[in-house]
């Protein structure tokens, strides 16, 4: 289970929720530590939330699809973030979708939204190297 | 405001998310700015190795690129990140300060094009490469 988040997630104030299917959804409250310009989230904090969501989705996929135990490490290779809307003074959620989980590489897409999941404030495509010990 | 003084702008450190990460000014030139991100346990993304997450590096590169654009525009005027791509060449060494350099290499009426690199001591051995675009906006 993806129940423990790294210290960086705590710095962002991120908590894990689950959707109806048990997939992780990450929640980041608005606060001083994630502000960029006054009244708006920092793009970097949104990127960080997307990263945490992508990694949570990836570990979830590894645990549910693969027979391997937890001896799998993942390393980020590329991250591309598109920013659609400013992040306002309200909670932000993000979830990742693993588009492909291979032996050595995983492709993950993550989106972040506030009021309406269909109106994302940012989205990211991330490629990870999978190291199976 | 006529001109943009990157050193003066960052003299009292950063507010908000930059402050939460411990980000600091490092250096700047005519179209570039460098920021420093000292190692801190609260930035760790992989507790097993102590390697910091990639999110703080994105934040630093976004901010360094922003300052480079303000220097290039010679004014503290608004812009918005359109996209940012980061290639992670290698993990940042635990314990080392990461330096991020953002450069605004082209600016039009609508778009600022930026690129940059991050390293942890040796600029010839970068740990991340960044390319991005920003929407250039009018005034605050």
Describe the structure.
With 133 residues, chain A is of the alpha+beta class. Chain A has one domain (7-132): Hotdog Thioesterase (Thiol Ester Dehydrase, Chain A, Roll), CATH 3.10.129. Chain A has 2 helices and 6 strands, in the order αββαββββ. Chain A has helices spanning 7-12, 43-65; strands at 15-18, 24-28, 72-83, 92-101, 105-113, 120-132. In chain A, strands 1-2-4-5-6-3 form a 6-stranded antiparallel β-sheet. In chain A, strand 5 and strand 6 (120-132) form a beta hairpin. The longest helix of chain A is centred in the middle third of the chain and has 23 residues, at 43-65. The mean pLDDT of chain A is 93. Chain B is an alpha+beta fold and 140 residues long. In chain B, strands 1-2-6-7-8-5 form a 6-stranded antiparallel β-sheet. In chain B, strands 3-4 form a two-stranded antiparallel sheet. The radius of gyration of chain B is 15 Å and the shape is globular. Classes of the chains: A alpha+beta (133), B alpha+beta (140). The A-B interface holds A 6-8, 10-12, 32-37, 41-45, 47-49, 51-52, 55, 73, 75-83, 86 and B 15-21, 41-48, 52-56, 58-60, 62-63, 78, 80-88, 91. Chain B: One of its GO terms (cellular component) is cytosol. Chain B: GO terms for molecular function: 1,4-dihydroxy-2-naphthoyl-CoA thioesterase activity.
């Amino acid at each position: 289970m993806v129940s423990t988040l790294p210290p960086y997630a705590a710095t962002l104030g991120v908590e894990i929720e689950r959707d109806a299917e048990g997939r992780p959804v990450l929640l980041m409250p608005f606060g001083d530590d994630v502000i960029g310009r006054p009244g708006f989230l920092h793009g970097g904090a949104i990127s960080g939330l997307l990263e945490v969501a992508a990694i949570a989705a990836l570990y979830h996929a590894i645990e549910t699809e693969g027979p391997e135990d937890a001896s799998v490490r993942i390393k980020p290779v590329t991250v591309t973030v598109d920013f659609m809307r400013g992040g306002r003074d309200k909670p932000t959620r993000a979830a990742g979708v693993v588009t492909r989980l291979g032996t050595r590489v995983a492709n993950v897409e993550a989106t972040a939204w506030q009021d309406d999941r269909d109106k994302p404030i940012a989205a990211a495509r991330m490629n990870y190297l999978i190291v199976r010990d | 405001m006529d001109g943009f003084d990157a050193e003066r702008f960052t003299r009292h450190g950063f507010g908000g998310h930059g402050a939460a990460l411990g980000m600091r000014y490092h250096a700047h030139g005519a179209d570039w700015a460098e920021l420093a991100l000292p190692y801190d346990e609260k930035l760790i993304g992989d507790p097993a190795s102590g390697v910091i997450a990639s999110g703080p590096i994105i934040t630093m590169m976004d901010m360094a690129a922003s300052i480079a654009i303000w220097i290039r525009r010679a004014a503290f005027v608004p812009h918005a990140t359109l996209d940012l791509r980061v290639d992670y060449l290698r993990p940042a060494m635990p314990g080392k300060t990461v330096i991020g350099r953002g450069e605004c290499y082209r600016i039009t009426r609508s778009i600022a094009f930026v690129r940059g690199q991050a390293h942890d001591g040796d600029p010839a051995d970068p740990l991340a490469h960044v390319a991005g675009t920003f929407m250039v906006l009018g005034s605050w």
